[in-house]
């Protein structure tokens, strides 16, 4: 065995010390400076005592030696014997080497620290912030909504953890979102599946955590793994609520089990399917949902209102100058949307209100606006009639869409599926109200569309082609919509068109096709997750809205509420809906059907502003049916 000498031990100790980085290097340079100054000062006292006495003896020589070490130019004013000047020269030359080395070490250390910070591996110290785990196009919608939601807050922060470069994420957000207002965006690089990486964004002090759906194959599996990773983390007394979405209904039970009671997991496929079917029944529903979920527009808020305790829900509809009561949240968490009008408001109830901002909600200080009785009409019963619907394209949502259509449509209705593939309808069960036929056709080809006898259909549903990527699928959808619009104009506007769009950026482009409604399911899911991240109690509200058993949003003919052309106001419209056991949320103007950004939708307008609706306009209500 090789004998270890003292020199080897000292050298090993020195190497270990130097490997500690910039602080160790600065420390050794500091020691070298002290040694140089003390040696030169002591030598000057011994070799040139006369010169040292004239400069304060040993303490003075220490000071002068230090100055020459730090500033070589100081030596130019020296005078004395040759030994003294020689020692001052040694101090100056040593100082040049030490100072230059120190500059190099500091420069290298700063560059190393900047590089480390750019990697985004430092732990943040935030409180009451929103955490996003993962990265996809969804991030830009969520961040933009959180920026808007935080406008009234003095201080807010959104922390993002994703397996991407920190600087790239920050640049992308600045480019896509723009002005961030009062919201700070903090990005960190790490894997959301690793508990140690999740700690970088301080989840224990967060207000809420959102699991972003990645744009990868089998995205649901990754979402479930992230939920499991969060479950494996030891939480203290405070555990933020978690929101996530899965895109395959079969994965929903596993995701909810992984998330535990603190997580709200949305079935994105089910939401999209219901929106497509409901929009098929009543064009414009998708835009109404966007307005309700978008923080830029009007959204739901919950607040206690002691002044309304003992009042019935129907009476509360006229109790606000700004805001429309839409339901009640009981003390046990139960949500009642559009409850019976004689429901008494309890002391522990919260009012669910539709308002532009929680700061703008205001109780009426005077009497309610007078109701214009002459403008109120009685709805004409309309028995359900069979319909013919054309479904262009096919994807994994189509079977469930057909199931829901069968529940909603009148008996003896017909559905024709036209898609460029083998007949997929043979595997479907028999339906009570729908007769289903299949035609093999390419929806992007004009001759194929003309051969379908489009004039015989009342509704057309255009599904996104899942065989292609998002952009390519939207491009194909746009081509199909252009052909449909041209054919419809030639036939005299016989059918309504509802289309599925993947990217909301393509919706504005698609307006030229003048389709009656566009369902941008990805954006709607992102908006819903953002709303839940701000207020977890809204989960029950949205679940009730999407449940066919409860009250839902309907766009009903305005002539069922107000006489066409009659002068009225929104307060009168609210009263007309109340008499039918419904809550009026707003209206949609047909003449502005295709005008962005609202597309004719007006929610929670001024209650006393003049209002005149035509027979073609729609009233947006919460109703049982």
What does this structure look like?
With 625 residues, the chain is an alpha/beta fold. The strands form 6 sheets. A 6-stranded parallel sheet has the order 3-2-1-4-5-6, with helices on both faces. Strand 17 (496-500), helix 17 (505-510) and strand 18 (517-519) form a beta-alpha-beta unit. Helix 2 packs across helix 4 (57-70) and helix 2 (22-47) packs antiparallel against helix 5.
Number of helices: 20
Main sheet summary: 6 strands, parallel
Distance between the termini: 91 Å
What is the top-level CATH class of the domain at 388-520? Answer: Alpha Beta
Work out the helicity level.
25-40%
What low-confidence regions span 5 or more consecutive residues with pLDDT below 50? Answer: none
Global morphology: elongated
Strand content: 15-25%
Subunit arrangement of the protein: single chain
Topology:
Elements: H1 6-18, H2 22-47, H3 49-54, H4 57-70, H5 82-118, E1 130-133, H6 138-149, E2 156-162, H7 166-177, E3 183-189, H8 195-198, E4 208-211, H9 219-232, E5 241-246, H10 252-259, E6 263-267, H11 268-281, H12 285-293, E7 299-304, H13 313-316, E8 320-322, E9 324-329, E10 335-337, E11 350-355, E12 362-363, E13 388-392, H14 398-408, E14 413-419, E15 434-440, H15 446-450, E16 459-462, H16 470-491, E17 496-500, H17 505-510, E18 517-519, H18 521-534, H19 538-546, E19 552-557, E20 568-569, H20 570-578, E21 583-588, E22 601-603, E23 610-611, E24 618-623
Parallel strand pairs: 1-2, 1-4, 2-3, 4-5, 5-6, 13-14, 13-16, 14-15, 16-17, 17-18
Antiparallel strand pairs: 7-11, 8-12, 9-10, 9-11, 19-24, 20-23, 21-22, 21-24
Helix pairs in contact: 2-4, 2-5, 4-5, 6-18, 9-10, 11-14, 11-18, 12-18
């Amino acid at each position: 065995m090789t004998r270890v000498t003292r020199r080897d031990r000292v050298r090993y100790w020195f190497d270990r010390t130097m490997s500690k980085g910039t602080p160790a290097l600065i420390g050794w340079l500091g020691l070298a400076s002290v040694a140089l100054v003390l040696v030169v000062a002591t030598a000057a006292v011994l070799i040139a005592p006369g010169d040292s006495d004239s400069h304060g003896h040993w303490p003075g020589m220490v000071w002068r030696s230090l100055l020459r070490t730090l500033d070589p130019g100081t030596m130019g004013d020296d005078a004395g014997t040759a030994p003294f000047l020689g020692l001052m020269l040694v101090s100056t030359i040593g100082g040049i080497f030490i100072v230059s080395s120190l500059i190099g070490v500091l420069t290298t250390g700063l560059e190393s620290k900047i590089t480390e910070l750019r990697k985004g591996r430092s732990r943040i110290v935030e409180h009451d912030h929103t955490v996003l785990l993962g990265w996809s196009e969804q991030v830009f919608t969520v961040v933009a909504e959180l920026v808007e939601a935080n406008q009234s807050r003095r201080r807010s922060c959104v922390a993002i953890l994703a397996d991407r470069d920190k600087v790239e994420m920050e640049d992308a957000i600045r480019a896509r979102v723009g002005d961030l207002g009062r919201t700070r965006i903090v990005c960190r690089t790490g894997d959301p599946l690793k508990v140690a990486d999740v700690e970088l964004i301080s989840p224990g002090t967060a207000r809420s955590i959102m699991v972003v759906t990645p744009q990868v194959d089998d995205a649901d599996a990754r979402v479930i793994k992230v939920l499991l990773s969060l479950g494996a983390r030891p939480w203290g007394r405070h555990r933020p609520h978690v929101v996530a979405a899965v895109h395959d209904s079969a994965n929903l039970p596993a995701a909810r089990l992984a998330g535990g009671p603190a997580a709200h997991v949305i079935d994105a496929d089910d939401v999209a399917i219901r929106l497509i079917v409901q929009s098929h029944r009543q064009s414009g529903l998708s835009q109404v949902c966007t307005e309700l979920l978008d923080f830029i527009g009007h959204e739901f808020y919950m607040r206690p209102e002691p002044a309304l305790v003992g009042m019935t829900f129907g009476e509360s509809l006229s109790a606000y100058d700004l805001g429309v009561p839409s339901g009640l949240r009981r003390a046990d968490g139960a949500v009642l949307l559009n409850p019976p009008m004689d429901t008494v408001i309890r002391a522990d109830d919260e009012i669910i209100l539709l308002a532009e901002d929680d700061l703008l909600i205001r109780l009426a200080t005077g009497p309610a606006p007078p109701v214009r009785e002459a403008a109120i009409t009685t709805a004409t019963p309309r028995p359900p009639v069979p319909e013919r619907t054309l479904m262009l394209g096919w994807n994994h949502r189509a079977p469930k869409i057909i199931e829901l259509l069968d529940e909603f449509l009148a008996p003896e209705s017909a559905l024709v599926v036209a898609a460029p593939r083998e007949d997929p309808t043979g595997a479907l069960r028999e339906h009570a109200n729908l007769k289903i036929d299949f035609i093999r056709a390419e929806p992007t080809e004009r001759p194929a569309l003309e051969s379908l006898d489009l004039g015989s259909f009342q509704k057309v549903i255009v599904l996104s082609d899942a065989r292609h990527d998002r952009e390519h699928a939207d491009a194909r959808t746009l081509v199909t919509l252009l052909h449909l619009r041209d054919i419809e104009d030639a036939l005299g506007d016989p059918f309504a068109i509802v289309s599925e769009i993947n990217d909301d950026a393509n919706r504005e482009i698609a307006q030229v096709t003048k389709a009656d409604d566009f369902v941008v399911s990805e954006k709607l899911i992102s908006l819903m997750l953002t709303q839940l991240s701000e207020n977890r109690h809204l989960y029950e509200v949205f679940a009730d809205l999407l449940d066919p058993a409860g009250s839902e949003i309907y766009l009903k003919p305005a002539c069922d509420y107000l006489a066409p052309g009659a002068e009225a106001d929104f307060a009168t419209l609210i009263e007309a809906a109340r008499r039918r056991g419904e809550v009026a949320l707003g209206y949609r103007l047909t003449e502005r059907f295709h005008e962005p950004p609202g597309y004719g939708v007006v929610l929670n307008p001024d209650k006393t502003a003049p209002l005149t609706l035509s027979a073609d306009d729609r009233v947006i209500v919460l109703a049982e049916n």
